Amino acid sequence: MVRRGADGYNRPPSQSARSVPYSIGPMLKLAIPHLWVKRLPWSIPLIAGTLVVLGWVGLGRCADFNGGGDRFLRQQIVWSLVAAGAMLAAMLPSYRVLSRWSYGLLVAALLLLLLAYFFSPINGARRWVRLGPLGFQPSEFAKVAFVLALARYLTDREPRRRPVGVLLPLGMALLPVLVILRQPDLGTAMLFIPVLFWMLFTAGVRRGEMAWLALLGLSSLPLLWTQMSGEQKSRVAAMFSQAGPGDPTHAQTYQLRQAKRMMALGRAWGSLWAEPAIEDPAAYHLPEARSDFIFSVLVERLGMVGGAVVLGLYGLLVWRGLAIAAATREPFGRLVASGLTGMSAVQVLVNTGMTVGLLPVVGLSLPLVSYGGSGLVTQGIVIGLLLNVAVRPGYEVAGEPFRYVAQPASKTRVPLLRQKQCP
């Protein structure tokens, strides 16, 4: 039997909160913030803050191109402060509380996604829910809710060695994907399936079931194709018909061609340290430069070296997130940290991949860098949840939490982040 102490950690009955003398209670409460400071991975907020500042640099460069002043930069700075508050709010309460609310949060996210259809479209898309002068994208909230709900399912699910055991997680992913595709928002919809497979792999699902699930997912591609809009289909087709240097530019390939051209103008060190490569304003015209193609703007401003630094910062952030997951003994927290880290990694790969033409232009922001309040506040919540797990690496005196753990005489694959047994 496990009892939860006053500090939020699980401990055997002999170490329960009642066994702590009354005079030690206030001292214990004072010691908890000190433990948080000691356990807090300061590199994560430092890296995140650096990426946010680099986003400000990119928005300042966009103001030079468009001549619209620094209005978007000032708005982004305000949203950065809101995101910092969201990070602190997500960090303070124990993440174990979210385990009880995770299914309800996913249902609320789906209802908000449906609610977006009742608001007027913006640029042909129904992605925003308006609250007076402000608006937010429910799809950003749905990403975090999906990770929390899937983490709870993989933690609480009774072990099954039948393929049907992974059908519910697939349904949990496909339902928001189909709703988001109809908004339309192909970029956000592309995140759910890779995150699903990553979390199943982390939870220790066998290779055979992973292959079976992959075949089932491939068989659903025709259904997903029918749910895509004509513009989304044209973007996918444009990836296979990219124009060369001397070829005429079409409307479907103009944005991608300008993104590549702007990165080429940055050369090695960028226009911040050297003179601009060309003075023609038309060469720097890039639609959606503040959001989807902010990476091209950064490469033009900071050069290829600066672009490599940005990717290196994301790599460090992913590495630190996975390190938190590996160090966490509590199964729900481990899956949450792994899932949120995987989600951010996939988003970076999709955004940079479409910028260089390796993936279709799907309209997906670069985490912590692109302009937008919804995405920035959501990333603040993600960082806060990672820190929340990091400062509470508690454990439960229980058996294996995940579905398939190798036995001494079995050849079943061991989960990537296997729980350590307590004596």
Radius of gyration: 23 Å
| Computed structural class | mainly alpha
Low-confidence stretches: 1-32, 395-423
Q: Note the run of SSEs as H and E.
A: EEHHHHEEHHHHHHHHHH
* Major sheet strand order: 1-2
Q: What is the count of structural domains?
A: 1
In percent, how much strand structure appears in the residues? under 5%
**Average of the residue pLDDT scores:** 77
Q: Helical stretch count?
A: 14
The percent range for helix content is: 55-70%
Largest sheet: 2 strands, antiparallel
By DSSP, the count of extended strands is: 4
Molecular shape = globular
Task: Report the end-to-end length measured between terminal Cα atoms.
Answer: 14 Å
Describe this entry's structure for a reader.
The chain is mostly helical and 423 residues long. The protein has one domain (42-236, 255-390). 60% of the residues lie in helices and 2% in strands. The protein has 14 helices and 4 strands. The strands form 2 sheets. It has a two-stranded antiparallel ribbon with strand order 1-2. A two-stranded antiparallel ribbon has the order 3-4. Strand 3 (129-131) and strand 4 form a beta hairpin. 41% of the residues are buried. Mean pLDDT is 77; it is low at 1-32 and 395-423.
